[in-house]
């Protein structure tokens, strides 16, 4: 069977496979390059054509080989722009497209189907939204349908469809059960991460270069709190700390990066008893291919499972051991009152007093000197800077225009308009000039409550603020942006920017604020997606253990073994339920049942079997064996039976009732002392 | 050598497990099921998905992997259920002359209210290829061709039925013995039929004993008349072609003989078989003697078949 050729024209299995491949390519649009998608589309269209018209001209092997070589060269050419994972997916899709063109044998078909199954899995790496999952499950069913069609080409399509759906429905409970109880292992080894998937905050920030900030409405993460939500003013989600400044650009300092690398290899321990008031929360991070975590001040991993995945850096930021490639769940706890002391070895002070060697921003420098002379107290100085922003008619805008030369000077003394990065950058620079350790923290601020105790944070909530140590001992948070845009702090970005988003797309989330209907719709989708993330995507080892503990109580080997056995039995039971034939189904036809019970009884009494005879033939065959009364009764019964069976108008209620009563009388007659029959005439003679 | 031993052991085991019968209803006893190569790859794919899912900590990938595993688990049962609905009955083999292709008629039906679906491959035991029947195509009777080489009565070998429905992950198959004998008549080797008339010996062991050759009359030549009977003399004289007819009270006198210990036995048998067919066609009664056994002179299809059967079993134990 393996090597046999397949028909081309009207071969439904190939058509179904092509459709599935096409849809799969569309779903995979994120990692795929345009020309690869185009190639698959072409291959699918050619298949549609072949399905209708048949093979008119054979595609030469040479041409396909040439195409393959060209595609490989193109892939190699573009490979610089992409991560390893994307290149692999592109390569696989290209290969599938070419194979689809020359699909001739059963073997090709099976190879393609297996590749498509694998690509379906790959698609799940890139996206795990509920909608994607639904589309992909339809693709899987389509591929299975294609296989069925291959092995039963003549079966009616309706039957195929019902068999397909039945198969899916039968497999789903078993799969879910396996998913719930199969141990969730930690990553076995590191996997290639895609380059293009890296989204969100960047590790460097150049406020002067950004003329206009574009706002994305992608979700960054969702946080579920075990207690009440923190008040809006406290919703500062720290991601990374930018400590190195060259006059234009703020970056994460090299020293911190090295420390972060080192701490991957040190063993991390959970503090036995947390001091103070720690509140638990759970982060569901959308895939962003970066290592930075978003956490409230001051956070740390709450349990052992999260501890293995999270590194607590010295600058109080948190990072993950592996880049977040798929939706992941972290259990954290935070303490809003905890202090953040500077490192004892003075490295913090040293890093955060660093100033650019170039003589940039001279006016800001002078201003810093003036401030230093005027205020001897550091706290008073910081207050003065904050007040400066409030008093000098600064404004908040997303389109400040570029400030390439002396960005801090331009912002402070000329434009006096900008967004968070400008404010944070200017303030930090001035503070450093006055000798107060200061740094920029970039992260997110705010969040939209989607349930009573869950927040979603979107890309447009990105924010930057200042951490300074006026007393030289502990870090304190200062948000200069808040001085000019207080509303942003209290109501979130959406509200405060209400006047600015007129040019946003109609169906964007930002627009949804205006329309109650759209807003409600978005809220509903959010809730469904949130539950999906929390319960399906976020199901990890910890939750699995909790679930087992809930079911079993204390876990002992015996209990676990028994549980395993119970699960196996359950699966066996399910399969038995699916496949053990149901004897009741044989007797759905009441008329037949009545007749069969009667003929079985007659067979037992007279020894004459009905076998394949018709009802009338059987009646005649029985004639010598029955006495006159029984025979006439049976004759009537047979007539009634035939009437219902073969006369179209016979299927009426009263006919059924009559047949039933006749059946009852006959059975009684036959039971009555076995009197209904007489010995065989042969023995009589 | 090893293969032959294995084959023999396998056949013995099969004989005990699935005894020969004219009609087979498939059940657990007779159906075998194993993953195909595609099925094995499918499991490899599941393993790959599991590794991907674990390394990317991606629950949906894991779920997909488990879904595929469940699908294959369910498919084991589905394919068995589908295959076991088959009821297979032998309708017999047509008798052929050695060298021709015999055809084994098999009737496929279902004992369930739901008919089996999918393609069914039918082939002889040990053969690589066979015929493919689509069960949804409402083909009830299937002809499985079998090449013949030698005369004799053979037990038909086991027939292998296999199905990949529904997903090609598992192959269901069975080897059925229908306990059907296959009769192969000897190869026909034409001999000039003047032997019949002129009492010439055929080969060394076969002698044709003709009866009285009483020349009776001439009649006009009709198409198909044997050349040997043409009255050449009258034809040479320029008369219309005529055929000599003989009065043949030959009921007891045309006698075909085969010597079972002859050195050219196969050739003799083939030639005799030809004569048997030829004489029957001419409706000329004949007797057949094989060694000590004699089949009394008669004519007709039944007689012919009896004689051919006797000829084909010479030297074989029946």
TrEMBL record, chain A:
Transmembrane region(s): 12-28, 34-51, 63-79, 109-126, 132-151, 163-182, 560-580
Keywords: Membrane, Transmembrane, Transmembrane helix
Domain of life: Bacteria
SUPFAM superfamilies assigned to the protein according to its UniProt record, in alphabetical order: Cysteine proteinases (SSF54001)
Residue ranges of domain Transglutaminase-like in the record: 412-482
Stored Gene3D superfamilies: 3.10.620.30
Annotated protein name in UniProt: DUF3488 domain-containing transglutaminase family protein
TrEMBL record, chain B:
Protein keywords: Membrane, Transmembrane, Transmembrane helix
Residues annotated as transmembrane: 31-54, 60-80
UniProt name for this protein: DUF58 domain-containing protein
Species whose genome carries this gene: Salinimonas profundi
């Amino acid at each position: 069977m393996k090597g046999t050729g397949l028909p081309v024209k009207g071969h439904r299995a190939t058509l179904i496979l092509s459709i599935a491949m096409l849809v799969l390519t569309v779903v995979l649009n994120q990692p795929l390059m345009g020309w690869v998608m185009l190639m698959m589309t072409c291959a699918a269209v050619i298949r549609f054509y072949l399905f209708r018209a048949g093979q008119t001209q054979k595609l030469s092997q040479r041409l396909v080989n040439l195409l393959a070589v060209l595609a490989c060269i193109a892939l190699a050419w573009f490979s610089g722009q992409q991560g390893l994972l994307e290149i692999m997916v592109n390569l696989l899709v290209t290969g599938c497209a070419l194979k689809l063109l020359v699909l001739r044998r059963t073997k090709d078909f099976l190879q393609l189907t297996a590749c498509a199954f694998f690509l379906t899995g790959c698609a799940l790496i890139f996206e795990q939204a509920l909608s994607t999952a639904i589309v992909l499950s339809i693709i899987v069913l389509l591929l299975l349908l294609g296989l069925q069609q291959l092995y039963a080409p003549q079966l009616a399509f309706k039957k195929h469809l019902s068999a397909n759906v039945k198969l899916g429905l039968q497999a789903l409970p078993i799969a879910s059960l396996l998913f719930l109880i199969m141990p969730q292992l930690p990553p076995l080894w590191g996997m290639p991460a895609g380059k293009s998937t890296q989204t969100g905050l960047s590790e460097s920030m150049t406020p002067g270069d950004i003329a206009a900030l574009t706002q994305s409405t992608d979700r960054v993460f969702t946080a579920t709190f075990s207690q009440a939500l923190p008040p809006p003013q406290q919703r500062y989600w720290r991601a990374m700390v930018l400590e190195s400044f060259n006059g234009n650009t703020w970056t994460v300092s090299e020293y911190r990066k090295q420390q972060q690398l080192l701490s991957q290899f040190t063993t991390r321990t959970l503090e036995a008893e947390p001091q103070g008031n720690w509140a638990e929360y759970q982060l569901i991070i959308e895939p962003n291919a970066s290592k930075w975590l978003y956490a409230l001040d001051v956070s740390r991993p709450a349990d052992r499972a999260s501890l293995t995945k999270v590194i607590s850096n010295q600058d109080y930021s948190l990072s993950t051991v592996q880049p977040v490639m798929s939706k992941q769940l972290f259990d954290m706890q935070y303490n809003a009152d905890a202090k953040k002391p500077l490192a004892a070895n003075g490295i913090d002070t040293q890093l955060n007093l660093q100033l650019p060697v170039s003589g940039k921003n001279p006016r800001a420098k002078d201003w810093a000197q003036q401030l230093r002379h005027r205020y001897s107290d550091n706290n008073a100085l910081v207050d003065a800077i904050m007040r400066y922003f409030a008093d000098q008619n600064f404004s908040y805008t997303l389109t400040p225009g570029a400030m390439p030369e002396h960005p801090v000077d331009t912002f402070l003394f000329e434009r006096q308009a900008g967004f968070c990065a400008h404010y944070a950058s200017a303030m930090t620079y001035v503070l450093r000039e006055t000798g107060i350790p200061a740094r920029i923290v970039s992260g997110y601020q705010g969040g939209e409550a989607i349930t009573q105790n869950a927040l979603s944070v979107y890309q447009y909530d990105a924010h930057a603020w200042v951490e300074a140590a006026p007393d030289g001992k502990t870090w304190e948070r200062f948000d200069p942006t808040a001085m000019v845009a207080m509303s942003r702090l209290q109501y979130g970005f959406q509200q405060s920017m209400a006047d600015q988003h007129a040019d946003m797309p109609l169906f964007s989330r930002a627009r949804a604020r205006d329309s109650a209907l759209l807003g409600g719709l978005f809220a509903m989708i959010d809730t469904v997606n949130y539950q999906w993330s929390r319960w399906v995507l976020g199901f990890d080892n910890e939750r699995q253990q909790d679930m087992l503990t809930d079911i079993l109580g204390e876990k002992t080997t015996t209990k676990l073994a028994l549980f395993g056995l119970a699960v196996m039995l359950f699966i066996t039971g399910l399969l038995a339920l699916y496949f053990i034939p149901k004897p009741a189904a044989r007797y759905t036809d009441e008329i037949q049942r009545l007749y069969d019970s009667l003929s079985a009884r007659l067979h037992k009494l007279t020894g004459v079997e009905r076998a394949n005879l018709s009802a009338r033939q059987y009646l005649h065959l029985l004639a010598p064996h029955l006495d006159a009364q029984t025979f006439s009764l049976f004759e009537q019964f047979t007539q009634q039976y035939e009437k219902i069976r073969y006369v179209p108008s016979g299927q009426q209620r009263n006919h059924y009732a009559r047949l039933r009563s006749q059946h009852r009388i006959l059975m009684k007659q036959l039971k009555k002392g076995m009197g209904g029959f007489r010995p065989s005439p042969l023995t009589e003679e | 050598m090893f293969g032959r031993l294995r084959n023999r052991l396998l056949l013995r085991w099969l004989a005990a497990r699935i005894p020969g019968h004219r009609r087979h209803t498939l059940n657990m006893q007779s159906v075998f099921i194993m993953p195909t190569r595609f099925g094995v790859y499918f499991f490899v794919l599941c393993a790959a998905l599991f590794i991907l899912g674990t390394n990317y900590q991606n629950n949906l990938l894991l779920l997909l992997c488990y879904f595929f595993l469940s699908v294959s688990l369910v498919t084991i049962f589905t394919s068995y259920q589908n295959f076991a609905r088959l009821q297979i009955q032998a309708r017999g083999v047509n008798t052929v002359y050695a060298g021709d292709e015999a055809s084994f008629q098999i009737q496929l039906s279902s004992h369930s209210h739901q008919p089996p679906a999918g393609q069914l491959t039918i082939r002889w035991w040990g053969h690589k290829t066979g015929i493919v029947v689509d069960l949804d195509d409402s083909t009830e009777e299937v002809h499985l061709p079998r090449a013949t080489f030698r005369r004799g009565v053979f037990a038909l070998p086991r027939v292998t039925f296999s199905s990949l429905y529904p997903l090609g992950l598992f192959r269901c198959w069975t080897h059925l013995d229908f306990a059907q004998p296959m009769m192969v008549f000897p190869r026909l080797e034409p001999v000039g039929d003047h032997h019949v008339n002129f009492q010439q010996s055929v080969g060394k062991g076969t002698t044709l004993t003709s009866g009285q050759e009483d020349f009776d009359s001439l009649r006009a030549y009709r198409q198909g008349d044997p050349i040997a009977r043409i009255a050449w003399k009258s034809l040479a004289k320029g008369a219309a072609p005529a055929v000599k007819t003989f009065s043949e009270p030959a009921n007891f006198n045309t006698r075909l003989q085969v010597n079972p210990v002859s050195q050219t036995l196969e050739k003799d048998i083939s030639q005799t078989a030809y004569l048997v067919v030829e004489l029957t066609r001419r409706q000329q009664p004949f007797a057949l003697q094989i060694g000590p056994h004699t089949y009394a002179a008669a004519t007709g299809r039944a007689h012919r078949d009896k004689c051919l059967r006797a000829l084909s079993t010479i030297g074989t134990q029946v």
